[in-house]
Design a protein that fits this description.
It is a single chain. By secondary structure, this protein is α+β, with helices and mostly antiparallel strands. Strands 2-3-13-9-10 form a five-stranded antiparallel sheet, with no helix packed on it. Helices cover 22% and strands 27% of the residues. The protein folds into two domains: 3-15 and 53-170, Deoxyuridine 5'-Triphosphate Nucleotidohydrolase, Chain A (Distorted Sandwich); 190-223, no CATH class. The relative contact order is 0.18. It is globular, with a radius of gyration of 22 Å. The model has no long low-confidence stretch (mean pLDDT 93). Strand 14 and strand 15 (212-214) form a beta hairpin.
Length: 229
């Protein structure tokens, strides 16, 4: 479970992530015949739906540029800094990067951490550097790190724009990867053959290019879900 605190009451609450589906994609999917689009794919939908979204929560919009190599310029930064009680909204970080004060403090249960990954619908040119934060004990507000934009490119941030996505996961234990045993590989091959045979008989639909699609992945997903005890 993720708990959070925020700098100001007007900052949006951290909410579950939602897939980014454009109006154009919905129209293409609704056409007759339909066009295949990303949200037809269950792994894509599931991947876009996990975790929580952190948005830009300050009322003062800012624009970030890099007028020279490794230089950071923040237009509107003074107003946003006042919202942060004098703490700078953004500052240079390692070479080619800058940090942004999210305005949120995160807490998760013992044994869990927060994996910070790119948002589903970030502003143009905002490139997050992934990070893993030990939020079961780390007491300070979350500091997000991004790549500095190239010279001549501006990053505009405004209220409720998506900054990052947070995945709460168990504390990783790095162990060597192991090759599958012959028995395990045979079991997978048998299952794959069964899947392929069922896919040939499954109810299908065809997109506007004649490509065939089934919902067998969703069917097998339901088949393999373990009941919650």
């Amino acid at each position: 479970m993720l708990k959070f605190a925020k700098y100001a009451p007007y900052m949006p609450d951290i909410a579950p992530a939602r897939p980014h589906i454009t109006a154009e994609e919905r129209a293409r999917a609704a056409a007759v015949p339909a066009e295949a689009v990303p949200f037809h794919c269950k792994p894509w939908l599931d991947g876009q739906s996990i975790g929580y979204t952190i948005c830009y929560g300050y009322l003062s919009p800012i624009t970030i540029t890099s007028p020279a190599p490794d230089q950071l310029e923040v237009q509107g930064g003074e107003q946003a800094t006042r919202e942060r009680q004098g703490n700078p909204i953004a500052q240079t970080f390692a070479q080619g990067h800058f940090g942004l004060g999210s305005g949120y403090t995160l807490q998760t249960p013992p044994g869990t951490v927060c994996l910070i990954v790119p948002a589903n619908n970030p502003p143009p040119h905002l490139q997050l550097v992934m990070g893993l934060v030990e939020t079961s004990w780390y007491p300070k507000p979350l500091f997000l790190v991004y790549q500095l934009p190239p010279q001549g490119v501006a990053i505009a941030l405004d209220y409720k724009m998506e900054l990052a996505r947070v995945l709460v996961i168990p504390q990783p234990q790095v162990e060597p990867a192991e090759q599958l045993s012959a028995e395990a590989l045979l079991a997978l091959e048998t299952a794959a053959n069964s899947y392929s045979a069922e896919e040939k008989q499954a109810k299908a639909w065809f997109d506007n290019r004649g490509q065939r699609f089934t919902h067998l992945y969703k069917t097998w997903s339901q088949r393999h879900k373990k009941p919650v005890s």
